[in-house]
Amino acid sequence: MAMTMIEKILARHSGREVLKPGDITDIEIDARVARDFGGASVVKHLVDHDLSIDDPLKTFFTFDCNPTGSDQRYAQNQQICREFARERGIKIYDINNGIGTHTLIHEGWAYSGTTAVTTDSHANILGAVGAFGQGMGDKDIAAAWHKGSVWFKVPRSVKLNLTGQRPEGLTAKDMVLNLLNRFGANTLLGYSLEMYGDEVGRLSLDERITISSMATEMGAIIILFTPNEEVRKYSESRAGKAIEVVKADADARYDQVFDLDISQFTRRISLPGQPHDTVEMDQVKKTRIDSGFIGSCTNGRMEDMRAAVRVLQGKQVAPGVVLKIVPSTNEVWMQCMEEGLLQIFKNAGALVSNAGCAGCAAGQVGQNGPGEVTVSTGNRNFPGKQGKGSVYLSSPAVVAASAVAGYITTPDDIPEKPPAFTPTEKTVKKKKAKAQKKVVHDQPIEVEGRVWAINRDNIDTDMIYHNKYLSVTDIHEMGQYTFDNLEGYEDFAQKAQPGDIVIAGKNFGSGSSRQQAVDCFKSLGVQAILAESFGAIYERNAINAAFPILMYDSLAELGLQTGDTIQVNFKTGALTNTKNEQTIRVEPFSEVQMEIYQNGGLF
């Protein structure tokens, strides 16, 4: 049977000759990784359950969220990981190394046909070299460290053909923002996407990384590229061996096939709040900014640094504007130094930090304050993700040009003199601490509870559980922070009662791989969450934590409102509004979900 790229890779790692979409199988993991924010929780699971390490040589820590050592709890968690690694013979890529997913590529652990899991939700960046990478929660990673494999549901595949000629000046960031404009945040939810076309074949490794890194923002499991000769040789030099490139079969079956004309792609920028809310550059030109950020796993590569230098050389960052530049890895940082780029950055007035995730993580430069307007090369601009200000997403060249101009612009339209800033009054609102709720531990097949009807799509993990609380590892402390970054529901934790049931729209839990976005509901005693669809990582985290989640097609006939009471049966999918006795069917638990639920969790 002909197979797609994802099917071939998973089949080879499961001992199966053939896999098809929907199959659930254990897959062997070649690289098993925990980062600094999730690492301490992984260690806690292993220690609490007295679990051994399957293969220390395939097991790693990567410290990239807080490489500056600027946060005490991050420092504490990093030291927990270091001590555990010394005892178990596990390698650490420490705070001087850079972004973990890039490290896997640089160090030759990830290449065509390999598999890797990490607590980084952008592990699917490895699709740039034709590898399967998946972000997972700390329970999944602990299980992978112990067993060497994880269960996985084979996703459906989509084929995307880019036809036509790439317009001059169109960057890889522009390309992926055009894709986000076309597909949004959930059209490709749960799919594996393969990209083809003449222009695709000519993309450099750095450009492929930029595109693959934003698969998560499209809701996709991964964006996979077939390595060209340049990428294959690079991977072979890093792995130190010959590599067989895994390709989809010519007659592979795809759920959908899309043909897009790249010649129609335009320079685009994401408006604050949602990566997929993109517009053409002309619509936001002259928007005043306070800061610029160049870096992240999306645009922190050498080609990105050179693109920024071409704009900044001989120029100065505008008065009142702060430009922060963070190379993705120490290797890129060193190359910037050798080529003289660091001197040009400093001469232009930019702040250059050591390698790491930077703006996307709260532990390094790149965060902004309330009222601050930032143009960033990151992959996310969810409210609160890169700080309390507003964040636009664009390419390194646009960020550099905007920093010089003092407003959003392109490299070919930089004014001779930037506008002067005028004083503005800004206030910072403090939030009251949320009361801690008691955790409820029971596993009934049928539950009844009060409804919270939240009629919103794409409620991401930063809205559910903000990244500033990620250092919290005690589940009893997590509930108080639930939804405190979701507009209109900041007081949810104070008003929620044990036994409540949350109902939301599409793509609930999109974004980060953080387990806390599930555990905070357990901390409050929330019984279940119903949604039209869930983010792929969130779905796994909830199932592994024995937290009930169910999907529905439509609840319109039930006429549900916040405060109503419903009954839901996890086995049959029967859902009843007790007020009018109307009953419909939602998707019941799968066999795997029921087994883990009855077991009280993955462990």
Task: Summarize the structure in short.
The protein starts with a helix and ends in a 5-residue tail after the last helix. With 603 residues, the chain is of the alpha/beta class. 28% of the residues lie in helices and 18% in strands.
Biggest sheet architecture: 7 strands, mixed
Report mean pLDDT, rounded to a whole number: 93
Roughly how much helix do the residues carry, as a percent range? 25-40%
Class of secondary structure makeup: alpha/beta
Separate helix tally: 19
Q: β content, as a range? A: 15-25%
Number of strands: 25
Poorly predicted regions: 425-441
CATH topology of the largest domain, anyone? Aconitase, domain 3
Strand order of the largest sheet: 22-21-20-19-23-24-25
The value of Rg in angstroms is 23 Å
Based on CA inertia axes, which overall geometry fits? globular
Number of domains: 3
Q: N- to C-terminal separation?
A: 35 Å
**What is the CATH homology-level superfamily of the largest domain?**
Aconitase, domain 3
> According to CATH, what is the class of the largest domain?
Alpha Beta
Query: Based on the structure given, which CATH architecture of the largest domain is correct?
Result: 2-Layer Sandwich
